[in-house]
Structures are given as C-alpha cells and as structure tokens.
Specification:
By secondary structure, the chain is α/β, with parallel strands linked by helices. The chain has a single domain (2-262), classed as Spore Coat Polysaccharide Biosynthesis Protein SpsA, Chain A (Alpha-Beta Complex), CATH 3.90.550.10. The chain has eleven helices and nine strands. The chain has helices spanning 14-31, 46-53, 66-76, 80-83, 85-88, 94-100, 156-159, 163-177, 183-190, 228-232, 246-262; strands at residues 2-8, 35-41, 57-60, 107-111, 115-117, 133-137, 147-155, 197-198, 217-219. The strands form two sheets. A seven-stranded mixed sheet has the order 3-2-1-4-7-6-8, with helices on both faces. A two-stranded antiparallel ribbon has the order 5-9. Strand 2, helix 2 and strand 3 form a beta-alpha-beta unit. Helix 8 crosses helix 9. It is globular.
C-alpha cells in the first residue's frame, strides 16, 4: 500500500517540518511495508536529496487551489493563505495525482508530516468497501464524528469523483476555515451525512492521551517535538499547555530515536 505525505517549501517552520517528515518516513520504513511518497511544492534541496537516498517517491505538485489562495492573500493581506494553505491543501489533490499515475483503483494511506509509526497498521485498517475514506477521532477517542484528517485511509476510486466538488466547497469556506482547521473543516462538513468509516484511535494516537503500547501511528496533534525549547522557556501556546505531560515526553523521546536514525548516512 502507498502512503502519502505532503509538504510545501515556503511554509512556516519548513525546516522543522522537513525533520518531522524524515522521522515519520524513517519510522514507517522501520515498522511497515508501506511505500512512501511525498507530494512536494518546492525546489530541489537537502530534503529532496534525503528522500531520494531513502527511495521515497517524490511528486512535484502545486495545489490546484493555489490561484484562490493568491486571490485571498491579495484581498486580505493575511499571510496564512500562502504560508500554510498551499501545503495543507495538497491532500485535496491526492486522488487526482493517483488517477494520473494509474493508481486510481487503489486504497492509499495519507499522513501528515507530524506522525510517528510505532508499529505496522496493516492489521487494523478497515475494508473500505464503497466508503470514501476512513478517519480517526480528533481530540476525543469517544467522538468519532469529530474526525481528524492527519491520517486518512482513502478509497481513490470512490473519493475521486467528488474531489473537484470538495475543492469548490473548500474555496467557499476558506475565509472561515483558515481560522479553524482548513481541510478538516471541509471534510467534516462536506461528508457530514456519512459515506466514511472510523479508524481505530490507535492509528491516529495523540500523545496527550498517554502512552499506548497498541498505538501504531502517533500524531503530534498540537505541540510538536521541535517546540520543546520554547515550551521549556515558558513560551508555550495557551492551547498547547493542556496537551503536555508524560505522554508527550514519552513520544518525543521515541521521535528523537527515529530522527537520529534518519540522520545516519545511507
């Protein structure tokens, strides 16, 4: 099964997210048989060289909603549109990219860069049947309707016919979604009547839920490992403060191990 990540070079904290991507892919290659691919908006650099050295598929692509982001940037002067949007919204083009490459009948996995594989998720992935995708709960394992798009199991053939309509919906809600959760807001609202399945929380496990030996994919939702120096200096974001604790420390240590392995020469 193919596993996709995405990243934009002009994003805020690009170098930090590039490091997170390296740790994510290193842990994926250690624990799974998944085939990693990165959808990338940017120039050749040290990251793309690292990806090539690890045999990772690189798909150069600028998100199809980029003209709308440029328009909103000019109209509002809000830097979030062009510093966050082009990377975050790449996932809305994923089924198009799959179809273009002859992968239109496949089921694929998508993960944000800020994940860590702690095991092989293969045995916990549901059969999607005719469902569009599967997603795990966001901040409460008991509230699956509050889906999180940091990890998605995607039925390309089922979702692709709706990709253009989903992008059009995204354009309509962008001015409010930019202040909430971007594509996640679109997925929740566009598919509010169903057509998707729930992934087990262990496939999108949040560090603030504590340690879990059954967690297969850990998602640093909220505070990231690269923010530890800011946190130690007392400059923690108010929304992140309740999400810190032993679970965060434990999975940051695991992330350090993966990142150290990523730095080893090949």
């Amino acid at each position: 099964m193919k596993c996709f990540f995405d990243l934009q070079e002009d994003a805020f904290y690009f170098e930090a997210y590039a490091d997170m991507l390296k740790a994510a892919i290193t842990s994926l290659q250690r624990h799974t048989q998944l085939e990693p691919h990165v959808v990338y908006d940017g120039r050749p650099n040290a990251l793309t060289a690292w990806l090539a050295s690890r045999g990772v598929g690189l798909i150069p692509h600028r998100c199809l909603l980029y003209p709308e982001l440029v328009r909103l940037d000019r109209e509002t002067g809000d830097p979030l549109y062009l510093r966050h949007g082009p990377g975050i919204l790449l996932k809305l083009d994923l089924t198009d990219l799959c179809v273009e490459r002859g992968w239109g009948e496949e089921t694929v996995l998508f993960c944000d860069c800020d994940v860590l594989f702690e095991g092989n998720p293969a045995g916990d992935l549901p059969d999607l049947g005719t469902s569009f995708f599967a997603a795990a709960p966001e901040d409460d394992p008991g509230a699956p309707e509050r889906l999180n798009t940091g990890v998605l199991l995607i039925n390309v053939a089922a979702l692709h016919p709706y990709a253009a309509a989903l992008r059009e919906f995204m354009v309509r809600i962008l001015p409010e979604a930019v202040r909430t959760s971007w594509d996640q807001d679109a997925f929740r609202r566009f598919f509010r009547h169903g057509g998707w399945k729930t992934l087990p929380p262990e496939l999108n496990w949040k560090p603030y839920w504590g340690e879990n030996s059954l967690a297969r994919i850990v998602h640093f939702h909220g505070p990231k490992p690269f923010l530890r120096s800011e946190i130690a200096a007392g400059r923690v974001h108010a929304a992140h403060a309740p999400l810190l604790g032993p679970g965060f420390d434990h999975y940051c240590a695991r992330w350090d191990e993966a990142f150290a392995e990523a730095a080893l020469p090949r």
